[in-house]
Design the sequence.
């Protein structure tokens, strides 16, 4: 069993998304530690990209702040090595394909394995093109995370059958239970579970305390992204403490 799958085996997990280097890598390091200490099952670290068009505006802005601060991919890999001396929480990188290609696919993924990265999700990598990275991920012990959405339709079974670590269930999450129930998330998770025992994790925009309980009932975990990044923007270097308190607040719902 992979470290990621083991971390999510009990379900109802809250998974913070943290943009690396916003406002600096010292803050990123402290935020990961606070997240672990306050109940996060694993953490997703976003590697800043100059054109993160698939992300919510708040996350796009976070990427730009980090890049303006001078953060480099090599610095982020060094950060993970540093974290591994202090933490055991599973770490998943969130990246765009161009970041991996520009670093060198095998070089990047081997560096991930050496640093202690447990999984890699490439936002703009179609499932049908995963062979670009999969052999390297298998060689260096990094789970290549796949995603499905309510619009994936007949592709859900084959994606689920080949999933590693956890399966992203991607959707634009609304602010009420009614919207969640009608968004197709629940049906997508149920379909995926017919074909895999890999944990299903819901990821989307506009997560609120009000709907997070319902989402953890439907799935094995919820990615907390915009709410975390908003705290990085608002509190800057003081954000780690606020992130820890927020994760603790969410965990107390169960």
Sequence:
């Amino acid at each position: 069993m992979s470290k990621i799958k083991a971390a999510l085996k009990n379900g109802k997990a809250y998974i913070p998304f943290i943009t690396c280097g916003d406002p600096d890598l010292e803050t990123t390091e402290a935020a990961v530690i606070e997240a672990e200490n306050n109940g996060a099952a694993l953490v997703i670290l976003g590697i800043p990209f100059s054109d993160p068009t698939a992300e919510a505006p708040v996350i796009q802005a976070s990427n730009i702040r980090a890049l303006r601060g001078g953060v480099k991919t090599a610095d982020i890999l060094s950060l993970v090595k540093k974290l591994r001396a202090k933490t055991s929480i599973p770490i998943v990188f969130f990246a765009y394909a161009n970041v991996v290609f520009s670093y060198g696919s095998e070089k990047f993924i081997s560096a991930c394995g050496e640093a202690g990265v447990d999984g890699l999700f490439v936002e703009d990598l179609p499932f049908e093109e995963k062979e670009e990275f999969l052999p390297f991920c298998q060689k260096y012990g990094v789970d290549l995370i796949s995603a499905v959405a309510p619009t994936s339709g007949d592709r859900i079974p084959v994606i689920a059958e080949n999933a590693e670590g956890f399966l992203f269930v991607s959707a634009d999450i609304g602010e009420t239970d009614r919207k969640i129930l009608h968004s197709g998330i629940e049906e997508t998770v149920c379909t995926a579970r017919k074909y895999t025992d890999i944990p299903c994790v819901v990821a989307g925009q506009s997560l609120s305390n009000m709907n997070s309980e319902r989402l953890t009932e439907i799935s094995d975990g919820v990615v907390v992204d915009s709410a975390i990044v908003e705290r990085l923007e608002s509190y800057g270097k003081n954000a780690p403490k606020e992130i820890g308190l927020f994760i603790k607040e969410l965990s107390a719902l169960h």
In short: The two ends are 25 Å apart (CA to CA).
